[in-house]
């Protein structure tokens, strides 16, 4: 694709000199074949089931997709993006309908607004865009697919930034504006630092409430809209400047609520994700971030004091130890993952439009950072589609694809609707775009680059530099064809300065290997042409690029990795056309092995090992120096936290916006580790950083309770009669009834054999876990004997249930027991299971251990005790303990996260999808569901 008027230059690209519109040449298509005709299409049935209860969530049969598209991609597009009532004639049933609906609006708008030199150029644009979409070369963000070409508002932006002033009218407008944005399927961020602190006075003489108090109302509003929304959960970001007098209250707000969640859980309340009692917990619908200044970070480094300033007068009203406040931030994040951190100095140093105001906030995932009351529409390129068969990166097609995408994104601003007049005015005046990419992690692995390596960072930086240079070069060409952005004239000096900063960063980039050298050369040329074109015509867009999470659209493009993320795991759960599923090793693995020089027979042996174990450690014939190439975000060989930070730092100088990414750290990470990562993020020039410690939040474990205040009603069994007489051991007879339960927990297989007295009561428990003769097996045997003897001496089972449920250690997580979906440890599971099998409803209810049906009855407001008698024991016929687990069927998995847990025997700390029940995948700074495409706020 080119940006010419009537002539083309020696690079076959040309320049726009007459302002008569763009000339477009074909790159992906040919004039005699429609892009749809190049693909094989097939009809499929999409039936989405919630595996937790077997209910059918969605059904549409006979949908049409390219044969090359995965079933997962087809399901997500059908359920999320097809418009019209299911079963009605107007319901979309083919990907062609969806793409025609969207691209038709883009092409028609481009024609009417003078973007194309001729009708032929418009037709070529139409075909090129359709080709790129149906071949999964890129995707627009979700609101485009939701809204464009429908009867609803044509909202195309996923990211919004609002503004709140220190007036009640402005605060109430904030609540309303957020609600409208959430209803449209997007997210919003806001900085509350203009609101006066709780230390300051109102004009009436009273004391102000402070911004944290107003966060409660906004949080409740977001939670309500999330519950009723049809497209996605609400996503919001709340930012407070580090010099605000209420900063410590803000920093501790969510950590305090996390303590509340734990107390409620321990008291037996339902605080699972979506639980009935979680609504009483505040601030759970927002990501919180502290906006730190360079002055504050320098004070942290030197151990100096730092002043907190009045919102009304700007005077210092309190002085704090900077290092102490920084540690408070780190400790709160260590406890509950909030707050994140945004580096104000770096953000505003790269601001192209400072005459219009400072950048004070971000969108919920922190990749869009620009003016208040503005928006940004996103699109992401699938990098693996640009990797050629010989292992080289297709530089030419990448440049042309970025030009195509940027042209389309800019056209969308001409027809887009916006939630408020202020946002519409700012966006039309500054035309912020956010082109990015997905599948970087897959690309690096496939080409034999370790994610945490100089080579991997060099490849990523080169691609990012070329992407942004190409985007801004096209922006300058658009400015020549249809004019620069309205705010350019007052910001021309600043915009040019930022462009030169990008160029300087590109000049400082040092390539390492053969793959990125031609990419970097192309980037150098593109930046040179970008500056020349900008000097002549300015730029059409104040912002061009960022790196978004690409949650749902990443699945739509069949990407192995989202955004800038590394591979999550080496094995993947794949749905099959026609039903069923299978596990596969990611296709990038054999490609990487061949690029590293391994023979086909060696590749086959290594892949077989990965399929069995889920990791490369001990793979036959694999050299130890190649292990890092296959390091993933989670698992046996996971990337070190600083490896994620340095990758972010490598690409940040080549982005207009920021990087959406959460740095995961292990559960045993310290507060000092958080301090180190946050400080290094500032030194390395990041714009934003969020750090998440595994298992720091209460998200999924089932509610448990304590039998507090329970009064004895007299002996109800032979065991209680024995206790009344004193500690006398009551041995089991030689022949006694027993049942064996097989279970799987966090990838570990085990058995519970429970023996009972013939007349009444549990009398012994035997636990099988681990190989015969192992330390674990010996410990479990000793534990079983101790419990059994105590039971025979009359210690009530409910005492053990009270003591051992909620005990937390590995293995933990998902089980194959439909009555106990999550357990925090083996003993937690065992005593929940024993309670369900051997205790009456009243005792279990007091302990917080209920069956699935009983919980459902509670939620429905019914008498749960009426279904208690219908609960059948989950005990099944199983091989006796000690016979080995090889005859036990493998645990059923429902997505790639559970598959990784099963293979590697540990638990990924991710929530379950509230729509379909599968365990979600990390995507940027939030989560995305591989099963149905739902996200926790990302596009």
Give a concise summary:
Helices cover 39% and strands 14% of the residues.
Overall tally of structural domains: 3
CATH architecture of the largest domain: Alpha-Beta Barrel
Number of strands: 23
CATH class of the largest domain: Alpha Beta
Report the C-alpha radius of gyration, rounded. Answer: 29 Å
CATH topology of the largest domain: Anaerobic Ribonucleotide-triphosphate Reductase Large Chain
Helix content: 25-40%
Strand-pairing-aware structural class: alpha/beta
Residue stretches low in confidence (pLDDT < 50, at least 5 long) are 1-18, 227-232, 699-725, 869-890
Residue share in β-strands: 5-15%
Number of helices: 29
Mean pLDDT: 85
Please state the overall shape, judged from the principal axes of the Cα atoms: globular
What composes the largest sheet? 10 strands, mixed
List the helices and strands and how they pair.
Elements: E1 41-49, E2 56-66, H1 71-80, H2 95-112, H3 119-134, E3 138-140, H4 142-147, E4 159-161, H5 168-183, E5 187-191, H6 211-228, E6 235-241, H7 247-266, E7 286-292, H8 294-302, E8 305-309, E9 316-321, H9 322-336, E10 340-343, H10 344-349, E11 374-382, H11 395-415, H12 421-430, E12 433-438, H13 440-446, H14 454-482, H15 488-508, H16 517-537, H17 552-556, E13 571-575, E14 581-585, H18 588-595, H19 600-613, H20 641-651, E15 662-665, H21 671-683, E16 688-693, H22 718-725, E17 738-745, E18 748-756, E19 762-769, H23 775-792, H24 797-804, E20 813-817, E21 820-823, H25 826-838, H26 841-847, H27 852-859, H28 865-868, H29 896-904, E22 921-923, E23 926-928
Parallel strand pairs: 4-5, 5-6, 6-7, 7-10, 11-12, 15-16
Antiparallel strand pairs: 1-2, 3-11, 4-11, 8-9, 10-16, 13-14, 17-18, 18-19, 20-21, 22-23
Helix pairs in contact: 2-3, 2-11, 3-11, 5-6, 7-9, 8-9, 9-21, 11-14, 13-18, 14-16, 14-20, 15-16, 18-19, 24-25
């Amino acid at each position: 694709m080119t940006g010419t008027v009537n002539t083309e230059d020696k690079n076959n690209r040309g320049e726009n000199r007459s302002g008569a519109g763009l000339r477009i040449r074909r790159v992906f298509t040919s004039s005699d074949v429609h892009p749809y005709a190049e693909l094989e299409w097939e009809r499929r049935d999409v039936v989405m089931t919630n595996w937790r209860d077997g209910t059918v969530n969605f059904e549409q049969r006979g949908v049409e997709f390219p044969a090359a598209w995965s079933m997962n991609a087809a399901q997500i597009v059908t359920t999320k993006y097809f418009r019209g009532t299911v079963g009605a004639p107007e319901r979309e049933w083919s990907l062609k309908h969806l793409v025609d609906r969207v691209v038709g609006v883009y092409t028609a708008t481009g024609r009417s607004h003078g973007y194309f030199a001729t009708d032929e150029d418009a037709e070529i644009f139409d075909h090129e865009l359709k080709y790129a979409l149906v071949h999964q070369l890129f995707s627009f963000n979700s609101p485009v697919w939701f809204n464009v070409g429908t009867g609803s508002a044509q909202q195309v932006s996923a990211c919004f930034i609002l503004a709140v002033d220190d007036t009640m009218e402005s605060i109430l407008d904030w609540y309303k504006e957020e609600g409208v944005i959430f209803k449209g399927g997007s997210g919003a961020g806001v900085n509350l630092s203009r609101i006066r602190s709780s230390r300051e006075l109102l004009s009436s003489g009273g004391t102000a409430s402070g911004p944290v108090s107003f966060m409660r109302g906004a949080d409740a509003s977001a939670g309500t809209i999330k519950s009723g929304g049809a497209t996605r959960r609400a996503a919001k970001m709340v930012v407070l400047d580090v010099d605000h007098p209420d900063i410590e209250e803000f920093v501790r707000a969510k950590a305090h609520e996390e303590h509340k969640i734990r107390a409620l859980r321990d008291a037996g309340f339902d605080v699972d994700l979506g639980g009935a009692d979680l609504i009483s917990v505040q601030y759970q619908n927002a990501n919180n971030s502290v906006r730190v200044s360079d002055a504050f970070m320098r004070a942290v480094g030197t151990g100096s004091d730092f002043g907190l300033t009045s919102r009304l007068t700007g005077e210092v009203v309190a002085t704090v130890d900077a290092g102490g406040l920084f540690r408070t931030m780190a400790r709160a994040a260590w406890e509950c993952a909030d707050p994140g951190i945004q580096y104000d100095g770096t953000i505003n140093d790269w601001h192209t439009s400072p005459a219009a105001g400072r950048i004070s906030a971000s969108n919920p995932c922190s990749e869009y950072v620009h003016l208040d009351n503005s928006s940004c529409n996103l699109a992401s390129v699938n990098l693996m589609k640009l990797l050629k068969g010989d292992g080289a990166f297709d530089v030419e097609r990448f440049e042309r694809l970025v030009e195509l995408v940027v042209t389309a994104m800019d056209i969308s601003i001409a027809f887009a609707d916006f939630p408020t007049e202020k946002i519409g005015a700012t966006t039309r005046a500054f035309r912020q775009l956010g082109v990015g990419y997905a599948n970087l992690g897959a690309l690096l692995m496939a080409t034999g680059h370790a994610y945490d390596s100089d080579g991997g960072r060099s490849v990523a930086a080169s691609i990012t530099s070329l992407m942004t240079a190409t985007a801004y070069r096209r922006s300058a060409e658009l400015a020549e064809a249809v004019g620069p952005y309205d705010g350019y004239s007052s910001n021309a000096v600043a915009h040019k300065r930022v462009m030169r900063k990008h160029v300087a960063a590109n000049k400082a980039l040092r390539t390492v290997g053969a793959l990125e050298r031609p990419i970097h050369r192309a980037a150098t040329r593109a930046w040179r042409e970008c500056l020349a074109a900008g000097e002549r015509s300015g730029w059409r867009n104040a912002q061009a690029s960022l790196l978004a999470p690409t949650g749902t659209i990443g699945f739509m493009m069949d990407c192995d990795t989202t955004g800038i993320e590394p591979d999550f795991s080496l094995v993947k759960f794949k749905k099959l056309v026609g039903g069923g599923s299978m596990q596969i090793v990611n296709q990038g693995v054999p490609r990487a092995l061949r690029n590293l020089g391994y023979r086909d027979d060696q590749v086959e042996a290594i892949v077989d090992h990965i399929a069995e174990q889920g990791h490369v450690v001990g793979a036959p014939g694999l050299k130890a120096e190649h292990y890092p190439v296959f390091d993933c975000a989670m698992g046996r060989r996971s990337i070190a936290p600083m490896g994620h930070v340095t990758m972010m730092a490598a690409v940040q100088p080549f982005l207009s916006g920021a990087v959406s990414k959460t740095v995961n750290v292990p559960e045993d990470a310290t507060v000092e580790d958080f301090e180190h990562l946050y400080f290094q993020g500032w030194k390395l020039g990041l714009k934003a950083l969020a750090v998440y410690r595994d298992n720091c939040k209460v998200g999924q474990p089932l509610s448990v309770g304590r039998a507090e205040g329970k009064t004895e009603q007299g002996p109800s069994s032979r065991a209680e009669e024995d206790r009344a007489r004193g500690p006398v051991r009551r041995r089991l007879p030689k022949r006694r009834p027993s049942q064996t339960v097989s279970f799987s927990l966090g990838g570990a297989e085990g058995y519970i054999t429970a023996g009972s007295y013939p007349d009444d009561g549990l009398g012994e428990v035997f636990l099988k876990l681990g190989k015969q003769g192992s330390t674990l097996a010996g410990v479990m045997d000793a534990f079983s004997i101790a419990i059994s003897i105590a039971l025979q001496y009359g210690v009530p089972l409910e005492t053990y249930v009270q003591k051992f449920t909620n005990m937390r250690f590995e293995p933990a997580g998902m089980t194959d027991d439909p009555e106990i979906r999550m357990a925090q440890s083996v003993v937690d599971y065992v005593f929940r299971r024993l309670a369900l099998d051997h205790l009456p409803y009243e005792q279990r209810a007091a302990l917080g251990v209920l069956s699935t049906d009983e919980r459902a009855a509670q939620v429905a407001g019914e008498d749960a005790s009426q279904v208690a008698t219908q609960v059948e024991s989950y005990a099944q016929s199983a091989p006796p303990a000690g016979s080995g687990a090889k005859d036990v069927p493998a645990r059923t998995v429902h997505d790639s996260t559970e598959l990784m847990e099963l293979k590697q025997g540990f638990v990924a700390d991710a929530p379950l999808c509230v729509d379909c029940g599968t365990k979600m995948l990390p995507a940027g700074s939030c989560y995305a569901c591989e099963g149905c495409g739902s996200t926790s706020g990302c596009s």
